What we know:
The protein is of the alpha/beta class. It has 16 helices and 10 strands.
Amino acid sequence: MVITTLADGITRRAEAVAGTLTAPFTDPVIRLGVTGLSRAGKTVFITSLVANLLNRGRMPQFQAAASGAIQTAYLQPQPDDTIPRFDYENHLAALTAKEAHWPKGTRRISELRLSLKVQPTGLMGSFRGARTVHLDIVDYPGEWLLDLSLLDKDFTTWSAEVLGRMEERPGAEAFTAALAAADPSEPFEEPQAQDLAAAFTDHLNTAREAGFSDCTPGRFMMPGDLEGSPVLTFAPLPPVEKPARASLWREFERRFEAYKRHVVRPFFRDHFARIDRQIVLVDVLGAIHSGPRAVEDMRRAMADILGAFRPGQNSFLSRIFQGRRIDRILFAATKADHLHHQQHPQLTAITQALLRDAKDRAEFSGATTQAMSIAALRTTVEDTRSHNGAELGVVRGRLLGSDKQAAFYPGALPTDPAHLLGPARSGAEHWLDADYEVMSFAPAPLTLKPGDGPPHIRLDKALQFLIGDML
């Protein structure tokens, strides 16, 4: 493990030196990582982002677009021939069809290169010709993102954490029964291992459906071509004092380490370590709806995830000696269109408080961070309704799976985030004085004017923060 870590570090440094020394003679490349947990809206975010860069009429807060510095934008084949291309055209067709529908979520890593022809501004801008800046967008499943937190844990630590929080989560009965019937100190048997792994996977899927975030290992829920392999056939076990070499406990420990070595570490090395800018999409409203325990679980998960990144400033010397680092991270609460704009400040404040630990860690390392509320694709319109003598700000949209229009009021988010985070940290099962609802809206039918991308909320502001300084 130590030799592998050293080799990975040497490889990254060699790539950093080569990239830094050749940068003045090549077109600049910005690698934007799009991450987030399941249902945070990564696919829709990337689709709308690309569409609004190709047609920039709705991007007034993205300065390079508003000023006309971006002369044109066009799609190109991505430079890595071994990574699938993000299926932009089909995803956009789904969102803009006469019967618009949500595209399928991310199930594997993909990449897309968008090239921008940019005219430099400022005093020297008129003396220089336009330059090409490549934006490489890297999309990967949120389930895989969770595994980054495993890199610094051993099997004993991970097992204790998972078993300790299992009582708070649904769907653990079958696994608990299978675990009670097993003796981790007894000799290993493959059928028993498969039963334990299957029951544990069912529990992970149930917990995820109930709104919990930290459901590791992530590949158990999205195995791909690893399905049925030994590297995905293990489960957490209670501690055993001096377990025998051929015991169930030792074999599960070995498979856990193999999972980190053959699945997690290569993914981190080949993709995460090459990111320049990062956006982390978070379904805060969904967690709030699921209850205090889901909110606390999301807070812990996001802190662990950000701990696995390499935030910091990208200077010439740091790239040579430390490798490429993420120097800007945006924490974006998605689905802001499910709230009237009057509540957007509360959603942003809750997001900032929810991600405080992760944000502080990134800023301490030298990265610039920001939190905001966005909707990559706006599906609702705002309205007001009278209720008990008061005017409530509501949103109206087409219900998912129906042609019906509905007005929706999710409940009043508190102006003080502590009113949510306090009960979450203390382990409360339910919100005491409020009931927060969510509703699933379908994409609204679009009639786009020439030069306009899909409607959104603060997508241009998000992009300005992420890459505006590099254009």
